[in-house]
Amino acid sequence: MRRLRLPLVLVLGALAITAIAKGQPPSGISRPSNETALSQVELGSQLYAGNCASCHGVAGRGIVSNTSHQGVGGIRGRGPSLRGVGAEAAYLYLTTGFMPLSNPGERPYRRRVLFSDREIQALIAYVASLAPGPGIPHVDPAKGSVSDGFRLFTENCAGCHQAVAEGGYVTDARVPALKQSTPTQIAAAVRTGPYLMPSFSKRQISDSELNSLVAYVEASKHPKDRGGWGIGHIGPVPEGMVAWAVAGLALVGLCVLIGERVRT
Amino acid sequence: MRKLLVALFGFLTLRKRRERRREQPPPEQPVLPPPDRGAENAVIVLLLLAGLAGAAFVFFYATSSIPHQTQWLGLTIGIALGLVAAALIVLGRTLLNEEESEEDYPPHEHPEEQEQIEELVERTGSRFTRKGLLKAAGGAAALGVGAALVAPAASLGPVTGTNSLYDTPWRRGLRLVDVRGRPFLADDIEEGTFYTAFPEGASRDELGAPLVLVRLDPKALRLPAGRGSWAPGGILAYSKICTHAACAVALYRKPTFPAIDPRPALVCPCHYSTFDPAQGAKVLFGPAGRPLPQLPLEIDPQGNLRAAGNFSGPVGPAWWGTHLRGPGNPS
User: Which of A59, A251, B106, B212 is most buried per CB count within 10 Å?
Assistant: First the structure.
């Protein structure tokens, strides 16, 4: 009987830890307990109050003072106002996992999306209801031309997002690759300009040009590697490394072999 | 990995062989073969041709109008260096006497051997029948190839006559147009994005033509002294050509939330030179040595954006003479 006691305690302990873990909400998100019973409007405002208002303020007014964070021009604050950003920005930030951030100084990068689809719809509707703003853009890559899109991408996007949208750097921030982006997310990002990205108005990139741009980004997700090995598709740096490490070494070996034959 | 092993093996065997050769006693009586006129002629011709190829490189470098200039430059310098190498190989293999003697001889004990070696050293050059001509050919090759190596220094730019660096299409009153040729209205320029502008009716291929346009809050501007009126409504125009290596400044870093995000900046995608548009494109980061030249702007009564003069400094990459005239004097 005494021999059984230790395993029993271990099993019970493991069960208890599992039960506690199951009882907790997923990391970072606080949800109303009666979520399924709530209407979309109620769910949106409750989720906003629980997860967004600590930085974006009551009713999306933003919090721009009384914190230790100090940014450009000496402005202090935790989060920008969401009034007038519309469904466009809310869709982009929520479906990509940019938001919610775990603390206000963090940078919005693509993460696992913690909200469910219904919760995201409710939050988008709530943010859009704060003040009139742009809606989720409609984009149809099938109507666009990949070659026009390539030209537009080279002119406007490739500086940061690099060749075939592999992602890169701008000073002080990382620029994401666009491999996981959906057409609507790309269109929303072009119009919104998330984080450090500039926004592009319809004068700069018209809706039909945006179709082409998205058609190109979609095409770039599956590049045709006619030369064989793509080496990450990011151009001369990895290609140069292959040239030095593989071809250079092969040349040295060849020289040694030739030298052997001459000497013997 | 395998190649590395092959290389290592080759190195070790070569060393062993070299040691073996060192152990061999030097031959007793050095016999010199007779002069070789054919080989000598070959060396002279090769050297002269090398000099000629070097001169051809200088010619192609100086005439920029020929097509495929880069390929011609590579071909001629390659031929020149190859010919010099070939001449040296012929020289070494056929004309130079080669003797190895490693041991020190006590000077007075074996005077005959000592004399023998001295004679050998003296006769080393004896197989050349036309030393003067050979030297002249060597000189020609050195001159031609040397000129080819030195000539590209001219590309470091003007040292004294720097006025050409200020030669841009921009004049007072010239309208700013977009890539399709439509004039920019001041009201078209929004904050949070950037635009590329060109001079109306002028060539866009010139280094001084393209501009990058941004709009900032006028209260946030900290422009250098004397540029107070250069940014009407907070609209700023800078040369789009990076002052480091002349890439197009194609990145605009724009904070969504200025309280936390990095400040607005124009960034060059080539080497990440970062310029602060609010402070006259002061360099915040990167290899650029001076700010982007700023173009003063004005808004006409119809709302069009127009240039109010030329740039604040020389446009384009870091030439030698860039700093001679001092910054901030638009002409």
Answer: B212
